[in-house]
Amino acid sequence: MKVLIIGSGAREHAIARSLRADGGITQIHAAPGNPGIGHVAELHEVDALDPAAVAALATRLGVDLVVVGPEAPLVAGVADVVRGAGIACFGPSAAAAMLEGSKAFAKDVMNAAGVPTGRARLCAGTETLGAALDEFGTPFVVKDDGLAAGKGVVVTNDRGEAFAHGNNILASGGRVVVEEYLDGPEVSLFCISDGTTVVALEPAQDFKRVDDGDEGPNTGGMGAYSPLPWAPSTLVEEVLETVARPTIAEMARRGTPFQGVLYCGLALTSAGVRVIEFNARFGDPETQSVLARLVTPLSTLLHSAATGRLADLAPLEWSLESAVTVVIAASGYPATPRIGDPISGTEYAEGEAGVHVLHAGTALGDDGGLVSAGGRVLSIVGVGDGLTAARERAYAGVDRIGLEGSHHRTDIALAAATMEDR
Ligand code: AMP
Ligand code: GLY
């Protein structure tokens, strides 16, 4: 099987790495990729937001499957045009990707399907914004209705800050969603679907805030781990039953079947499981931890989903080991990341600490050396017998990386590891 991966982050590097480890693949291509992905795949240039260009590349390469990593190409219709060219594609159509592309649309689908989620108001002006803030009270949750790369959400007790965030979105022509605050631990569950059948991966937990102790602004994600020793054993089946299957059925009923991965961002509240958000793609950095534990060949899973044959797939097999991912971020991330700094120690970390070093914001400098090129620079993945061992390995890898001014959280999976060890 020949595969083309679209994207250039650590999530796409993790996908490429898993495909490389899987015997069923003869060629892996990636576009645009990054230097780390270049170690496991052949790289090509493409404008990932140009559906015709992606389909033309896939046709020229003669691939059997295109895997679209990020949300923006999906919302732009890349999967539609690739499928239209007769090539199997893992990733939803533009219409189905609206589950991520518009929070108001996702709420509408959830309400129609009876999926448990927080109450929300769509606000088109400052008057309705103010009224919605007062209706739900503190903590205030204010979101950009559209795609905002993880930065559209503000959760705060400060009404002035909440109002200002909503006002900024309105002023730039966007629509604002104000939501009821959902309290409780968060879980990311990736549900793979071919449009009809749904298969869940193992749950993971992400760390969204930039600093230890969940302080500081939201980011795209600073680390993740899997499995979740504290989660109820019935969680996955409950989410399949109450969230994923009803959503997939509602999308099919609307004539816009969802094929790809429905990322269920959940809060386990005292009143039960609630959906915080849907995404139409794998999560980053959760994927780095989840795929590190998947034993079933990834190509089989993705190809079955892309060709409507998930019902024939044997139950997924998982490693009993744990995986912890720590993100190394550039100085200034998330506000204004500094780029162009030399990165050292990646091979040393892999060789000595035994981690996977997955590239996100990296590039090759003029002298051919690795330099930073984005906010989240590397994902360091440690696998071990239990979360404590996986953490030790991941942080031993982090310690071997040199990047001036970089920062990372030191408490990824710490509470869960402590609980597991007791
Ligand atoms: P989102 O982009 O919708 O996932 O939001 C990013 C993060 O903001 C989530 O992972 C939560 O930590 C937080 N968040 C979003 N919506 C809510 C909510 N309704 N209640 C509590 N926290 C939320
Ligand atoms: N880790 C959060 C996301 O991928 O949206």
What does this molecule look like?
By secondary structure, the protein is α+β, with helices and mostly antiparallel strands. Helices cover 32% and strands 27% of the residues. It has four domains: 2-90, Rossmann fold, CATH 3.40.50; 120-179, ATP-grasp fold, A domain (Dna Ligase, domain 1); 184-312, D-amino Acid Aminotransferase, Chain A, domain 1; 322-421, Phosphoribosylglycinamide synthetase, C-terminal domain (Glycinamide Ribonucleotide Synthetase, Chain A, domain 4, Alpha-Beta Complex). The protein has 14 helices and 24 strands. A hairpin with an 8-residue loop joins strand 7 and strand 8 (153-156). Helix 2 (51-61) crosses helix 4, helix 6 packs across helix 9 and helix 7 packs antiparallel against helix 8. The relative contact order is 0.13. Bound molecules: adenosine monophosphate and glycine (GLY).
